[in-house]
Structure formats: structure tokens, C-alpha cells
Amino acid sequence: MKEQLEQIRAAAKQALSGAATGQDVDALRVRFLGKKGELTAILKQMGSLSPAERPAIGQLANEIRADIEQAVAQRMRAMQEKATAHRLQRETVDITMPGKVSPQGCLHPVNLVTEDLIAIFQSMGFDVVDGPEVETEYYNFTALNVPQDHPARDMQDTFFLGDDLLLRSQTSCAQIRTMETRKPPIRVICPGRVFRADEVDATHSPVFHQCEGLVVDKGITMCNLKGVLEQFAREIYGPETKVRFRPSFFPFTEPSVEVDVSCAECGGKGCRVCKDAGWIELLGAGMVHPNVLRACGIDPEVYSGFAFGIGLDRLAITRYKISDIRLLFENDLRFLSQF
Ligand code: PHE
After folding, report:
1. Can you give the pTM of this predicted structure?
2. Does the C-beta of 251 come closer than 6 Å to ligand 1?
């Protein structure tokens, strides 16, 4: 029996050393140490031994059981360590590898000035409204006091889409859409794209951006217009900026003005940027024409208002000293990523 026990010990150890997986090891544990295992089977024969033999064999059997148990545990641990080492090896991060640089985007200069402009007018209580880029003649012209066949329609070379539709040539359509849906007091701005059939050159593009402003309430005067625009100009170009009004004409405002700001580059002395004028043309504005108010169901005897339209591309160009408007539309990342 002693021999049989030693054989089991040897067989178990040999089998364990050949086990390839944790499952194999576990199967061997069952095979040798389990309730129906080989060692147990031998111990069941203990009864046939003489009382003198029993203690020695019993002790040996216990020792062998402990030995095999230890061998199983050891083999199991070794396997786990190997697996862990293998995993760590696989998951190793080579910190000397160059990182992946994900390029950071930036805002387009026109978006930058638009966001600033929105913030400035919002701080003065204006809402931001939106309007369609495809408009009807009514919103782009007729309701803005430009009747059919009026020569003022030629002031802006419009892209017609047929069937009464056109690409809006100005954001002034927003005045009408706003007054149709809101009652005074009204204070809105409407930034957006506009389209004109202009030849492309350093200062013209068939697509450009404007921001319309509209205020309608009781007792609104040119003074309010000037105050709002002065505040705006100072926030954009600096606190020393001066604003001047020049008489002009727009069909939808009366009186109409062209608004200049003192040149931020030379402070008004005259330089290359302002072409020695000391002033830079910023926007068109005026008091909303009574006919426009009337077309929107607002009584011009009770209410008055002002409107203005700012060219956002020009704003971006003067602010960032960009020499050519085409740069804004060519989407050259080398240029755009500077802002
Ligand atoms: N819509 C005019 C233009 O595009 C600008 C403007 C807007 C003038 C509002 C007066 C009032 O030239």
C-alpha cells in the first residue's frame, strides 16, 4: 500500500507538471484528491490493514495528500502569474511613442465678429432672430417700400430663382418678418447670409454676411439710433471711437444715413487703412419708413422705429486687418487657423 501511495504521489506530480490550463489542474485535483479520487480509493482499503500498520500508512497518506494539494496550489499560482505577466506584456504602453495630435478647430473670423456683435446687442436687450435665405419678392422688396418696377430694385443685383422666389439680397427682410409676428416694443437683430450678383474682387463677394437691427416702440428717434450705434462701435473698436452720420438713401428708411466710425488704426488722422479719410464706412441705417410700418400693421402715428444693416465681412476685415474679402470664403486652413 505504501508503494501504491508513492506511485500516486509521483503520478500526480508528473501529471501536474504537464497540465496546460487551470482547467487541467482542477481536473487533476479531482482525479487524485476528490471524493472518488485515486487517493481516496486507496484510503478506503485502510480497513484491511493490521492495526500496527495503520498509523504509519495513515500518516503517509496525509502527507501525500498535503503534498499533492500543495503541488496543485503551486501549479495554479504559477499559471495565474504567467497569465498576468502575459496580460501586462500585452497591455504595455510605450510612453516614448509620439502622441496623436488631434487638431483643434477654431471659429471663422466672420463667426467671431458675429458672436461679439450678438453679445453686445444682447447686453442692450436685443433678441436674435433668424430668417430664410430664400425669400419672396414681397419680403425682400415690396414690403420694404420698394414697389414693382421701382428703380431701387436695381440697387442690389439680385439672384432670382423664378416663381417669385429669390436669394435674399439683404437681411432687411427680417424687419418685415419680425413686425408680422411681434408687437412693439421690438428690439431684434438678425445676422445671416445674403446674396448679390456681384463680380468677385478684393471687396466684393456674391455671398456675404449682414446683421439687421430693428427697434420699434413709442417715441423712438434718431437719438436712440445714434446712442445704440455709438455704444456698439465703442465696444467693437475701442472707447475712443467716434461715430458720424452721413445722409443717404434707402427705400425702407426715412431719413436714411450711412454710418462711419473713426478709423481705429490712426484715430481719425488719416492712414492707409482708411485711405486718408480718417473714417471707415460701417453700416446703413435710418428711421423705419411709415410705409414699412403700415405694411406690417403697425400704426406710424403711434409707433416709430429705427433699423440698421451692418456688413459683417467688412467688420471682420477691418478688425483683423484682412486685405482681401476672398480670403474669408476660400477656406484655406492656413489662413483660417490664425484666428
Ligand atoms: N439693407 C441695407 C443694405 O443692404 C442696409 C440697411 C438696413 C439700411 C437697414 C437701412 C436700414 O444696403
Report:
1. 0.71
2. no
